[in-house]
Amino acid sequence: MIPSLYIASRIIRDRPFSYYSSSRGGWNWKIYLKCLVIPLAINLIYYIGYPLINGCVGPNRLTIPFFIICLILVPLQCIAEEYLFRGFIMQTLGSWIKIPVVALIIQAVLFTGGHMYSMGMIGILYDGIVLGFLAMYTKGLEAGSALHTVNNLLLCYFVALGLGTSSLITIWDFIPGILVPLIYVMLEINTDGLMKKQMNVV
User: Fold this and answer.
1) C-alpha span between 173 and 129 (Å, rounded)
2) Mean pLDDT within 180-201
3) pLDDT at 169
4) Whole-angstrom distance, CA of residue 162 vs CA of residue 72
5) Is 22 helix (H, G, I), strand (E, B) or coil?
6) CB 3.0–4.6 Å: which of 26, 69, 75, 135 could bond 86 by disulfide?
7) Range of 142's domain?
8) % helix / strand / coil in the chain, to the nearest 5?
9) Looking at the 3D structure of the chain, how many domains does it have?
10) 60: enclosing H helix or E strand
11) What is the torsion angle, in degrees rounded to the nearest 10, for the CA atoms of residue 90, residue 7, residue 80 and residue 115?
């Protein structure tokens, strides 16, 4: 996906491809890894508490190959989606439409359209808005990519362990999808732009 975006950016020629990563002009792995910590901690609380309250819903199918494949592919998939929706689409729309919130909402709707999960689409739209806000607030894709990666990766392992299901959406399933991004954003805002300082964003 990212090579395709590179080609598209060369066709449009509105900015260097590196600026789709951040206003700093490139991707920063150190920032991405730092940003994994908070959503990982919050999600683990939920994923440990869920089976204690609800028990297992299926057999454990987690295998070492599956664990390794997810560990490699899920972060790449999440980062690629951030490049597409919050990097290429939102930034391109933002350069055409001078009202940032319009570009944010459009990319969130398109992001939702790419994830046809019935009732779960409400949560996907919410995630798209939050991830778009993070990209705008931090002026980069690392923070949103970290949140996106942790959410998808732990969900894969959670379902594989038989502790949850990806087919039946319940109100309880919305809790991590709503609270984790909200807490993550609030922690960033209430720490006086700590993430911004780490990223050297003015």
Assistant:
1) 19
2) 63
3) 55
4) 21
5) strand
6) 135
7) 2-199
8) 75, 0, 25
9) 1
10) none
11) 70
